[in-house]
Amino acid sequence: xxxxxxxxxxxxxxxxxxxxxxxxxxxxxxxxxxxxxxxxxxxxxxxxxxxxxxxxxxxxxxxxxxxxxxxxxxxxxxxxxxxxxxxxxxxxxxxxxxxxxxxxxxxxxxxxxxxxxxxxxxxxxxxxxxxxxxxxxxxxxxxxxxxxxxxxxxxxxxxxxxxxxxxxxxxxxxxxxxxxxxxxxxxxxxxxxxxxxxxxxxxxxxxxxxxxxxxxxxxxxxxxxxxxxxxxxxxxxxxxxxxxxxxxxxxx
Length: 252
Known about the structure:
By secondary structure, the chain is of the alpha+beta class. About 25% of the residues lie in helices and about 35% in strands.
């Protein structure tokens, strides 16, 4: 049966995206790209006129020069022809790269089948354990306007809404991002250089997890594979690794 992949509007694949999100059941790092005008091209996959799946291509931002497939979904009953559908999609979309999180099983299989070299951009974490760290003289609170000078002086993130102070001095800042798929909130922190190796990053992550849960959300996190300090802080605060953001150039 003839297979086609055609450019469509987001509304034409939205129903299948809902199934995709339910099947993923985790934080979807590239979820927000669909809502950014001009950032994505959507392709509907059909066979004999029946909708069987879709593919999403990032074409703006860091992917402007190298269009990248970041979602490819096929309904369960049609997955026996997964590779056939993907080849048709590749021909129609002219993508040059694949980028996916490894807990997206379909696209991860395709990544390893259609790229020669795969690299990890980030390690993904989900929350598993509750911790009770309490570094000496450390206090977690909301950032306020009076903290701005210290935050700049310590080379911390001025947009972060939360901080840890030690003896009244701002030592670390952090926040929770909600531009992925709710209810997941992405936690990030930064500790001033002079306050590192005291457990303050772990403490800040722990408290941001608590804030996230209290707002009815689910904490998640990620870090660069080479950032050992961040990786250790996340794990000490109760996060457990669950995958990678993987990417590779398509080689047919």
